[in-house]
Amino acid sequence: MAPIDPHSYTDSSNPLTNHISLSLYFNFSSSTINGSSLLTLSSPHTGPLLLDTRSLTITSVLDSKTLIPIPFELSPVIDPIKGQTLTVTLSNQSSVLVSFVTSPCSSALQWLSPPQTFNKSLPFVYTQCQAIHARSIFPCQDTPAARICYSARLNVPRELSAVMAAKHVERRSPVAGEAGVACDEALWCAEGRVVEEFVMEQPIPPYLFAFAVGELGFREVGPRTRIYAENVVSVLDVAAREFAGTEEMIRQGEKLFGAYEWERFDLLVLPPSFPYGGMENPRMTFLTPTVIKGDASGAQVVAHELAHSWTGNLISNKTNEDFWLNEGFTTYAERRIVEVCQGEERAALNIGIGWKGLIEAIEKFKDNLEFTKLKNKQEGVDPDDIYSEVPYEKGFQFLWRIERQIGRPAFDEFLKKYISTFKFQSIDTETFLNFLKASIPGIEKEVDLVLWTEGTGLPSDAYETESIVYTKLVSLAKEFKVGRMPREDEVADWQGQEWELYLENVPRSVEASQVAALDARYRLAESKDYEVKVAFLQLALSSGCRDYYSEVEKTLKEVGRMKYLRPLYTTLVQGVEKEESKILAKRVFAEARECYHPIAQGVVESILSKHI
Prior knowledge:
The chain is of the alpha+beta class. Among the domains are: about 15-215, Immunoglobulin-like, CATH 2.60.40; about 315-455, Orthogonal Bundle (Neutral Protease, domain 2), CATH 1.10.390. About 35% of the residues lie in helices and about 20% in strands. It has helices spanning about 185-190, 235-240, 245-255, 300-305, 325-340, 345-365, 390-405, 410-420, 430-440, 445, 450-455, 470-480, 490, 495-505, 510-520, 530-540, 550-560, 560-575, 580-590, 600-610, and strands at about 15-25, 30-55, 55-60, 70-75, 85-100, 110, 125, 150-155, 160-165, 165-170, 195-205, 210-215, 215-220, 225-230, 265-270, 280, 285, 315, 425. The strands form four sheets. Strands 1, 2, 3, 4, 5, 8, 10 and 11 form an eight-stranded mixed β-sheet that branches. A five-stranded mixed β-sheet has the order 13-14-15-17-16, with helices on one face. The chain has a four-stranded antiparallel β-sheet with strand order 6-7-12-9, with no helix packed on it. It is globular and about 80 Å long. The two termini are about 40 Å apart. InterPro entries: Aminopeptidase_N-like_N (IPR045357), Aminopeptidase_N-like_N_sf (IPR042097), ARM-type_fold (IPR016024), LTA4H_cat (IPR049980), M1_LTA-4_hydro/amino_C_sf (IPR038502), M1_LTA4H (IPR034015), Peptidase_M1 (IPR001930), Peptidase_M1_C (IPR015211). It comes from Papaver somniferum. Belongs to the peptidase M1 family.
């Protein structure tokens, strides 16, 4: 017996789950879900079956055919990363029915009270299961190695609607007898309840399980795409304009990577507390509202999540130790889509911003270089604690290096072959490298594959980017140190990405007065583009400029995206002579904490505990 994943109790001697049938009753008054989960295994099993859980109350475990109780034990010891083992003792059985109740502090769920929503009238709940949080919604083998199909019945208040990263079957009244062991029949069939049914017919990793329940509306923006959001006309309309080009991106993705296998590519714009820019849930990508910038540049985040439809969702990393297989490939694929849809210069700027982020990430891990490797060891490590640009940008650089070696036509041919060979599978780095060497004989003599995947830091044959615009922006940023502010004619055509790149390359050692003068001219602290605003606020904090504390506080209280929380909280508390800003960070977090998703709460707590 041995675990197959450092972040899961799933045992190598156990058959893997291949289908789950869920019945979920949503109780907004207690912020809990009463549920049942029918797990079907790939083969009959006799002996202990180990399942992952976190913060779940297990109310029964039954034989799915006879409803006779099956012996089970929930481990008394709670691992701070993996949660608790649910051990079920089977006797030549290939399925098991578990009933459970989630906790109000489920790490995958954020329950929003009506005042936390746009319309202020009805509650909202949504999921974020990556990397290892599906286990806090239902017991499962919570590893990407265990790909599952599923069906789900969501019982919700009639005034709300539900969406899932799955095919919608119907919305209907509850039917007597279908609650089963999920909850009391009287609750399931109560007045004012409806059932939304969904099915996912393609095998996915558990981290891609996703739903949202609230007062939702939508706009049609293409033959395969609807934009969903809270039912607010202004939010829906601006989102529809921002992502109007989605169908063209899908078509370009298909030209590059093969057929789109998921039928729909819908988008859900979530409340500002959503902790990521986007989450590539199949059929329905979840997005932060901060990607809506009014100039269609937010479509680059959509391009990234769309690219996951081939690399990450069709082919997934077997464990988080191979996370680069998801994100490095997807970053490469995103930039190919951006290059076709928005031009080579835009893609080059994207690469330049990524390069800067990679250099900073490697510096961040200078005391733990293991996490600068593409293939790394994560036993005893929370994946949320080591999330960084390394798997994205170093992974991209590795693939770009191979493309430069063999030429784009040959690499495109390889990419399509790779996707068609491994679709609907979860693989590791060794599998990829073996396939690469078999497909491109001699590649290991031309590119040091071991150095790229197992070496620390950045190999010498990594490549920044060549672009006239990129080079000029970086040069202008360096000149700011000696008092050269960009002229208005030089910035006239800049979008958010240009400003972001400029600000990130300005030396951190500039004077506070210089930062204030830059803002006086260009009003960067007031930017509607959070990439620009946060890059500027980070620069202001680094320069010791206290004038922007109120804007930092406001920003930390109005958004929950970790891309912004991490650098702002870190800059507030890291370094010497930071007592005033440390006090500010502690107070703001105490006041804003409940507005953050549980994953973001944990990340900020980790930052503060290291420096305060």
